[in-house]
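Allow me, if you will, to draw on your knowledge of protein folds for a short while. I have a record of one protein: its chain in single-letter code and its fold written as discrete structure tokens. I should value your view on which stretches of the chain appear to form regular backbone elements. Thank you for your consideration; the sequence and its tokens are set out here:
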Amino acid sequence: MERVTPRRLGPSFVSLIGGIANDAKELLLREVALTKLEAQYELRKAKSKAIALGIGIGISILGGICLVLMLVHLLSLTSIPLWGCYGIVGSLLVMVGGVLLVAANTKADEPDAVRLRSVNKIEESA
């Protein structure tokens, strides 16, 4: 009498689970690599923007200094002495700067809820 052995038609359950685990591990590693590449790209972009912004701010500061000096000398055309004109313009600039610093301080205290898109992808994948 022949003994009939059942044939396996596909891979075993354990090998399927192992394959799923390996695929999940590979997917997670690829997501981490993608996040790393995106962060490097964003840093390069931010660096070039920061350089352009720094140059623009420097040139704007020089232009602002020239305009302030022009305003002082324009004000000196009145009967106010030159030192008084510098005092008036300097006081106005200090007040405007103080208002801007207070506004920036209150704006900086607000929480920022920005998250990278890749972090969300990794959380979804996990």
User: Anything to note?
Assistant: Residues 42 and 64 are 32 Å apart (CA to CA). Residues 13-75 form the longest helix (63 residues). The helical segments are 13-75, 82-108, 117-125. The two ends are 53 Å apart (CA to CA).
